[in-house]
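Team,

Forwarding the record for the chain on the shared tracking sheet. I've put the sequence and predicted structure together so nobody has to dig through attachments.
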Amino acid sequence: MLIILAAIQNIENRSRLEALYKEHASWMYKVAYRILKDEHLAQDAVQEAFINITNNLEKIIGPDCNKIRALFVIIVRNVSIDIYRLRKKQYSVSIEDIEEDLSESGPSVEEILMNNEAFTRVAEKIKELHPSYADILALKFFYHYGDEEISQILNITPENTRTRLHRARKSLIKLLSQEQEAKNHD
């Protein structure tokens, strides 16, 4: 973080970024850790997120801006997902290696692959939704936030959170149904 701060010439912007870091870094780390399941990678994700934030610092009104937390969640989430994907490509394992590591009582390789395929399909469909729906579904199902936490992150009422979640689920189901119908017609 010191390198990032040193790179900023404007003293006011440097102070602003330092205040944002002190206020938001710990929970950003938690979001990154939930995705990456690795302490060091989560720290890297937070640092990368703050580099992105530094590049757009003029767009952020101040440390008390209502939408900063939601913005930071989205930034650190995207950075973490990018790191996860890159790591996944670098450390891909053969199916034979997976089979050796699994116990007989655990799920079969086929079940794991089917679950991963379904998860990927749903994740891709979520990306096609309106951003407000995609973000709320991601917070709920990928990051396991409760309705109250989502309300605070997105700065909306709990009722609005539940309504938006309901609508987002309906939209996702509709997209998945359309995809299934298209496959059935082929």
